[in-house]
Amino acid sequence: MTTTTIARAWMVQRADGMVLGFTDHDAGLKFDGIQFRPDHGMSARALVQATGLSVDNSEAEGALSDDAITEKDVLAGRWDGAVVKMWEVDWTNVSARRLVFAGSLGEIVRSQGAFRAELRGLSEPLNAARGRVFHPRCSARLGDGRCRLSLTNETFMIEASIADIRDGHILRFAGFPAYEAGWFERGSLLVLTGKAEGLRGTIKNDTAFSNGVREIELWQGLGIAPVAGDRVRVTAGCDKRAVTCRQKFNNFMNFRGFPHLPSEDWIMAPQAGR
Known about the structure:
Elements: E1 6-13, E2 19-23, E3 29-31, E4 34-37, E5 43-44, E6 48-49, E7 55-56, E8 59-63, H1 71-75, E9 83-90, E10 97-111, E11 114-121, E12 157-161, E13 164-166, E14 170-173, E15 188-191, E16 200-208, E17 214-218, E18 231-235, H2 242-247, H3 264-268
Parallel strand pairs: 2-4
Antiparallel strand pairs: 1-2, 1-9, 3-4, 5-8, 6-7, 8-11, 9-10, 10-11, 12-18, 13-14, 14-17, 15-16, 15-18, 16-17
């Protein structure tokens, strides 16, 4: 291959199987059954690889176009962790190509109709903590394979229509079932209909008023704000304490913490007989 005919091509595959291809060449390329489009979508900075397997100072960026990567999909997290591969390819003979990067998308930042995404190499999972953490509070995520609690019944999950929304993150409901105040704090809210469909937020405050009025405040807005009439699914929250696991969820047999560990104060205090 000669340097005058080298182009870069990259493939992005979401967790749901959707595949997009882009190239910095001025014409489309095709190989491995993927059409690499030149007109819009994404570009990538040069890769700087450190000693070992880590990838430093690497980003992908592009426009939030309606037919490629949309702002709604980015906000909904559909591109989080997407598989990324990048090739250097001879555009006169696409069989002459070299894979220069394989990894995934990391943190995605939006700004003025565009996005910037961190590129993470194959070694990124090695940075994750391994093994169990010995802590009085539970290390499981509510409803996951270690928690084993089913969240499908109405005790822990409810669907409702938004009656009113203020400041993009305070939602009010009318005719809400009678849950005790704070039941959904630390829980999640998923938008089921409307322009914000698929977006998810974490619940900061859950306030119950008389006559079935409920106010749920999110920690931050959803990017695309839902509107009155949109349907949402609200899931109960867990503060990871043993007493909550026992009394609220009746799931203490699956509690993944160590509630009887002595505190740091006990360890530091002088002990009789020492």
